[in-house]
């Protein structure tokens, strides 16, 4: 059967594996391999925007979580970790850097003197509003490589797949 798709890197890898291990069905690599490559490329493109504002991906995520909290734009560190893709261990380091840059402040919680609250500063709010505007513009440009129907179908498929991946698995992988 003639292959009508251009032979990208993943297709070449699959062809090599089919030759070397014809006993294995390597078809999952067509999806997983391309998603993995695409995720890397998307991360590169997104990080270019963050870098223009002097931010890492994690720092951008923390500032966004504070901005999404609404006025007065503050959250406890544990709450920040729950609203970002940043672990609690990595959170302190990011907050330290953002505080040194004057983008956030830390104070004791009014409710629990042992607890801390992290809040956006005026310059932090201004920076994240500008950075997020550019980030969304960038995401639109990246998604514009697909038709609207393709993007909607992809979102539906990815939502379903991720939902199933996030469900607890029964012992034994079933």
Structure explained in plain terms:
This protein is mostly helical. It has helices spanning 9-20, 28-52, 57-68, 77-82, 88-100, 122-143, 148-166, and strands at residues 74-75, 104-108, 116-120. The protein has a three-stranded antiparallel β-sheet with strand order 1-3-2. Helix 2 packs antiparallel against helix 6 (122-143) and helix 3 (57-68) packs across helix 6. The longest helix is centred in the N-terminal third of the chain and has 25 residues, at 28-52. The protein is elongated, with a radius of gyration of 21 Å. It starts with 8 loop residues before the first helix and ends in an 8-residue tail after the last helix. The mean pLDDT is 91.
Which H/E pattern describes the elements? Answer: HHHEHHEEHH
Unreliable spans are: none
The helical percent reads: 55-70%
Tell me the radius of gyration: 21 Å
**Largest sheet, spatial ordering of strands:** 1-3-2
* Structure summary, number of beta strands: 3
**Average predicted local confidence, pLDDT:** 91
Strand content: 5-15%
Structural class: mainly alpha
Features:
174 residues, three-stranded antiparallel beta sheet, mainly alpha
């Amino acid at each position: 059967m003639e292959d009508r798709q251009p032979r990208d890197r993943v297709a070449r890898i699959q062809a090599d594996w089919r030759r070397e291990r014809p006993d294995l069905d390597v078809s999952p690599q067509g999806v997983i391999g391309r998603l993995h490559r695409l995720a890397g490329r998307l991360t590169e493109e997104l990080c270019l925007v963050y870098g223009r504002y002097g931010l890492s991906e994690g720092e951008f995520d923390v500032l966004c979580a504070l901005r999404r909290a609404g006025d007065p734009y503050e959250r406890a560190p544990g709450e920040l970790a729950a609203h970002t893709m940043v672990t609690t261990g990595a959170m302190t380091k990011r907050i330290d850097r953002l505080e040194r840059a004057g983008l956030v402040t830390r104070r004791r919680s009014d409710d629990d003197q042992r607890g801390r609250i992290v809040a956006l500063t005026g310059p932090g709010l201004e920076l994240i509003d500008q950075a997020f505007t550019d980030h969304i513009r960038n995401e639109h440009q990246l998604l514009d490589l697909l038709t609207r129907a393709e993007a909607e179908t992809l979102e539906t498929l990815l939502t379903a797949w991720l939902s199933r991946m996030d469900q607890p698995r029964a012992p034994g992988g079933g």
